[in-house]
Structures
1.
Amino acid sequence: MIYLDAAATTPVRREVLEAMWPFLTGDFGNASSHHDLGARAREALEAARDEVAGLLGCRAAEVTFTSGGTEADNLAVKGIALARRGADPRRSHVAVSAIEHPAVLESARALARLHGFSVDVLAVDAAGQVAPESLAAVVGPQTAVVSVMYANNELGTVQPVAELARVAHEAGVPFHTDAVQAAGWLPLDVRALGVDALSISGHKLGAPKGVGVLYAAGRLTLEPGLDGGGQERGRRSGTENVAGAVALATALRLAEAERTTAAGRLASLRDAFTARILELVPEAIVTGHPTERLPGSASFCFPRVSGESVLLELERRGVVCSSGSACAAGSSDPSHVLLAMGLDPEVALTAVRFTLPGSIDAAALEQAAAAVAEAYAAVTGIAHR
């Protein structure tokens, strides 16, 4: 099998398993318990928090462990918006981009449906980027929060986050970014980015599914999404996932240590893979920004064929990839991301996304590109040399 769906999930790294194992076995205590076993769990939890904070360039008190990226996004968008409106009823507006993950889009829609917020959905250009001036046109004193993702999960397009955050701050509005896909591949220093909140998911980095992080600046008040025992400084109640926190901290540290070298290597492989597919299947259309994109992301449309049919043919040939976000798998609707970029719905239905894991090599990608050509020929009857 050639696995080219790293944006959906990644295998757990051996170093991560070894780091978390003691907290699944001998040191299995509840971090809120007042005995030695609980104290050891609490120590490990806070050490993980310190490590994540160091990697993000923030204070440990600004790091909240969650169950994953979806919860982190919900806590950021809903939590900031509801808290700020609670302090000032005029703040009843949110702005998000048209290509956000459903965790952000549905959070914004829930604020509108359940709490009466107005929502501006920011348009993107044909490469999938938000222009800072489009944000400046809608943000103001009435805005509770802005959320624009760092890098898109379907296209790999990277947003001008620092510029967008500056626009939001000029209007006195906090800025959140979903960095789930960016983590491990792009710089995450929250001070350099200028963001007030940032979400990460462990299983995109080589940690297990079920753990994430929300950085939220200490000056922000968040309405908690879960009520209970007040864990995570009152921002996220529930028994802490100590092993998961240790795993995420370890995975993030390893990814950050490797990032510069790994990203350069993967971008070169991605470019060669993209060029080879276009050589073998001239009808293919590359989607997303040509240069401002994640190093391992290559996305295409294959006009006049079903993307799902191409996927099936590729899997028969041992290549695993996807048509877009794993959260939308099984949907018969075209991608909201591709529609937002102006693609015709019929073309958008032909999308295939390849997201390369760090362990991939040139030989495997050459084999995968040949499989794409074979799959396209099988579906269309059009073979290319």
2.
Amino acid sequence: MDLNTYQLYINGEFCSGSTGDTMDVINPATEEVISKIQKGSEEDVNRAIEAAHAAFISWEKVPSKERASYLYKIADKLEERRESFIQLLTEENGKTLSASEAEIDLAIEYFRYMAGWALRYEGEILESERSNENILVYKKPIGVVAGIVPWNFPMFILARKLAPAIVTGCTIVLKPSQYTPNTACEFAKIIEEVELPKGVFNLVTGKGSDIGNPLSSHPKVRMVSMTGSYPAGSKVMEAASKSITKVNLELGGKAPAIVTKHANIDLAVEKIKTSRITNSGQACTNAERVYVHESVADEFIGKITEAFAKTAVGDPTDQDNEIGPLVNKERLDSVTEMVDTAVENGAKVLTGGKPLQVEKGFYYEPTILVDVKQDMDIIQEEIFGPVLPIMTYSDFDEVIELANDTEYGLSSSIFSDNVHEIMRAANELRYGETFVNRENFESINGFHAGRGQSGIGGADGKHGLNEYLETHVVYLEYNEDYK
């Protein structure tokens, strides 16, 4: 078949990269090459940043309501092409069609939601210690934003970074993952069709190792918004420190799920399964480990093992399948190694435990592990695959300590019908999010943020919008005697 070779999008024009080199994009379900992208370089990054910087001077002066109108147009265009983007997302990422539908719909909703903030974010007027003075607190766009998008939710997180940037008056240089760039490249065509002013949105594709540092260290970039792994985030933070550039980092997670003796076991099984297998276990908010009270452990483990064993894995275009492939062979090998190491150290596999035996594709069986220990890598390190290790506990003080025993601090959950347990968890779990008796997934009007190695800053809602704004205080003294 004829492969689509995507171009960069810089200063309102599609163009080739400075080196002329391209990279293959692989369908993780079939291992076939589905497109080629430009292998962007530092020169390309610099051109994009200069374009964004030049555009910012006039873009920040455009009334916010007018800026928001572009977001509505983008949402409308994306909705018109909903089906093609769903197919494109499943093809490049391997997520099931139903998961791709949910992601595209969420991206559309996100553009419209953020557009609604155009006339809502506000500054302040403060009382002065002087009688003839007003103190005015303005909220102004931070400037050029570098948006680094991961492969696991390429369209939603693109929207999450772009929408608040546009509505607040920032400009952006966006880098999609080299593994899932096709949706972003097609999205650039929508940007051109809605006639967003040149330089407001720029797209540079390529390897993170080639693009990440020049994006993060450039002195004209005023914020780096990056979603990805902790090691990648620490490199971004180091590079950004050279120019004292603000960083907004959503990094990894190791979400504990606590099942107490007062839990509705059937509900816990249903929601924890959903929280583990969403996107084939490749989400930073996925439930990564379970602590179940010893008095209900047998019931819970039996039921969730049965649920995992019945989970349909396979071709993501088959609507009957709940799980598609992992994004690439590197991810498959990593999950396989983590499970094998856990078993070597005493863990027991109740179901799954190995790659799915198929001719093509990077599939891993939904897996339940027991007899794991707190110091094992499978409990301490992010798995990013459909594997769930389970431990038991005897009292609530113990489980809070176990749940907090991690360098990460993004998401957590508790399943209980006891208000005292719920309130203790809400107050004592050291995480940015705690989900009670429900699956792990945030709302667009909340605030998605972590602690520790899970990142700095956050996204969504008014607090996420404020990440793109900086404060300018004006001390306005006037003549009280003026007639």
3.
Amino acid sequence: MTASVTSTTEQHESNPPERAYRHPAWLERLFGVARRGSTVGTEIRGGVVTFFAMAYIVILNPIIIGGTETRAATDVLGGWLPNGQVAAATALTAGVMTILFGVVANLPFGLAAGLGVNSFLAVSVIQDVTWQEAMGLVVINGVVITILSLTGLRERIFDAIPQQLKTAITVGIGLFIAFIGLVDAGFVRSSGIASPPVQLADNGSISTWPVVMFVITLVIMGVLMARKVRGALLIGLVVSTILAMILEGVLHLGSSVDSAGGWSLNVPELPSTLLSVPDLSLVGAVDFGAFARIGWLSATMLVFTLFFTSFFDAMGTMTGLAKAAGLADEQGNFPRLRSAMVMEGVAVAAGGATSCSANTVFVDSAAGVGEGARTGLASVVTGLLFLAAMFLTPLTAIVPSEVAAAALVAVGSLMVAQIRDIDWSEYSAALPVFLTITVMPLTYSIANGIGVGFISWVVIRTLSGRWRDISPLMWVVALGFLVYFARGPIETLMGV
């Protein structure tokens, strides 16, 4: 994909490329690969790139919500989720839900355990309930989202969002994933002081080989994309991983846990074994006793918080990805919108049912979209690789996060290009748009960016005399976000 991809859904569906595509007719009927201007090879390549961009979740999710006997996120009763079981459940759920999403919604988006929800569970929720009860709340959250999607209410909320804000969401997500990439690579770090809160690498100096490897990878990808080389991101990932393995073989950098100059997550070296038998003991280990343990009001507030994080994170992510893929029309709508929203709600519930946390559309799918993926076939490829990852968990750890992070930065730059479609002449719209774009990366949350954007849009447009242009649903959602942002004081007042 290049930054100039702006074709509407109608153009993709009605004007396929003139060259012939040689693939089975059933594949075309199911996914419409040619109709969307793609090829089977491009879809496979995009699916592979998306997997490698997302594969870190199989390693990272256990670190957040799992643990070992010596280090774990323990719940109110001292219980914890074993790392190996979390990894297996994470790969299983991501694989199954991504495949189903690809077939039903026919969009090139990968799904896996969302980082916002799992962190909230590990830091806050399990202080009051057990892990099994926390996952029960996630299931309830997913059911609510699915019902709203099936009834069309979620789609109506989506349609009520002004086009300016939809575009701002795309741009904000582009900055967000680029920031994620920079942080994951260690190119941007916390300064440890109030001001400035972040800094370049180590005290403004690039002093470790993994960060150098990130820069090299970004340069490789940038040059290949600038020269319009097909498979630029995948080639960059493969070549850079090989270089990283050579670097590790020569310098023996190891993990950052053991050495200050080591790799932050995955050490790029061949594992001692390629196969492992997945332990799926966590599947179905769910308890709905949170309401009895902490009371209906407290449990409902937890579900409310989970709901807002899941509901709007996914909606914003899908909007941005669809626009980046050139599948969205001028209003930001894309093919099978309702199916996509329903399947995302099912994925949230499935993540709770398998105890790997709520699954959602991953913004990292932008890597595959940037590689040219346009249909659900890419998602099927990504999902199959996740299922294989259950057995090949050691192999998925070869690609260092510093290398994968470069793909996020490269694709983020393409998504930010959508800023050209925003009309900055009307300040009552410009300020909410600006806040949406900036709050996402600065607070590390898509939901926060959307919430601030919605509230400021309603308030500023109303006080500027433009209240007639605001949909009633925008008022309802903005009020909901006000409650969401003020949930701490509200809980205190209610004695929760």
4.
Amino acid sequence: MRLRYLVATGGAALLAAGCAVGPDYKTPATPLPVSWKLEEPWRQSAPNDSADKGPWWKRFGDAQLDALQDQALGGSPTLAIANARLAQARATLAANSASRFPQLGLGTRASRLKISANRPLTNYATANSSTVQNDFMLSLNASYELDLAGRVQRSVEGATASAEQSAADLENTRLVLTADVANNYFNLRSTDIELDVLSRSIALQRRALELVTARHDLGAVSGLDVAQQQALLDTTLTQVDVLKKQRAQYEHALATLTGTPAPSFALPADLREIRPPPVPLGVPSEMLQRRPDVASAERAMAAANAQIGVATAAFYPSFIISPTVGVDSRMIETLFNGPSLLWSVGVSATQVLFDGGRVRANVDFAKAGYDATVGNYRRTVLTAMQEVEDGITGLASLDRATTQAQAAVAAARRVLDMATSRYEGGASTYLDVITAQQSLLTVERQAAQLQGQRLLTSVFLVKALGGDWCGAGAPDSVDPRTGCPAPLRQAAGTR
């Protein structure tokens, strides 16, 4: 009769299980604009947001950059740490999921013991005697927590969301790593171009110094002209040393990002022009599907929401069923006989009656943690919108500035030619030549810097959009306007 009561009690508890306390998770609404504020030469497009956010850097068409990215993805300690965090999160999920199932254990005992004849009497009419006997036992134990308040269910939900958050964090780490590699690489290449500009300027200034020195030796000009040209040359040579220092720092940063000791890493100078790829822009809401940091912030909300349910479940009783079945005998040959059978079934229940407000405080703590993740999610979305708008306006402005800088370089070269001719003809002082040389050097360096800024801003925009926009890999047949495979030509926009 007692066994029936225990079974009935356990069955009723099982029927009640599955009612999870705490709020069900709902993604908070985030106000999103209908479209970006586009200006020429941008236009709206529809990138393939369901595609894998693959090697976006291949859109720049630089083999050296591709090799550095592959090296970074294979040897970066930061990426290895993120992979380990993901493995930990998945292991935690597996551990929490195991709580859904009964825990089984097998126990065995084999002993030989002697009972004391002088032990306390259990019956005053019967004298104790000393015996020596064997004891053999084999038992199967089970333990199962009835998830009456949904504590286990919420724990699994939270662990699942945390594992998904770690996966998003890994993608974000990969995106940030590859963007850092590209930024340092383009900074290095921009510095190479600036050094080339300085090298050509130094050659020009040395020829000018030879000219003015020759004219000074002939008595045609004063020593002031020679001193001015020498000062300009020395200043330019100083700038070379400063740029070489900056280039070395970019090179060392690339070494660290790729997991290579800085003394063992070197990149030769390369003056090839790299053009930023056209980046298609979709509607703002698509970015929520693309950016891994937004996905990570959203999954953090889901995990925090589940913790509210876990904390709330402490208000309700905890039920654990613990059945045991086994055999026990003093002789090994009768261990599996019918009379050797033993069993037990038990249900234990625990209910907190007074804890000084500890459970309530834990629930309040979990709710405050959830509110914090909501605020972080909204901040992440707003920051994402800001970064995309910064990239859009930045590239549009830099495109116009680059065109103007190229025109300024051509004009500065004409001014230098005219100033040199006028000086040689005695129509002007050498100060006009010095000024023209300085102006040419300034606008040529500015043009080189603008080209580097265009590349950096392109990387910034790609990162802001969440990575590659038309899938992984380097397709053999691509649209030259977008760098996307031919099937996506109609879907991708241009700028």
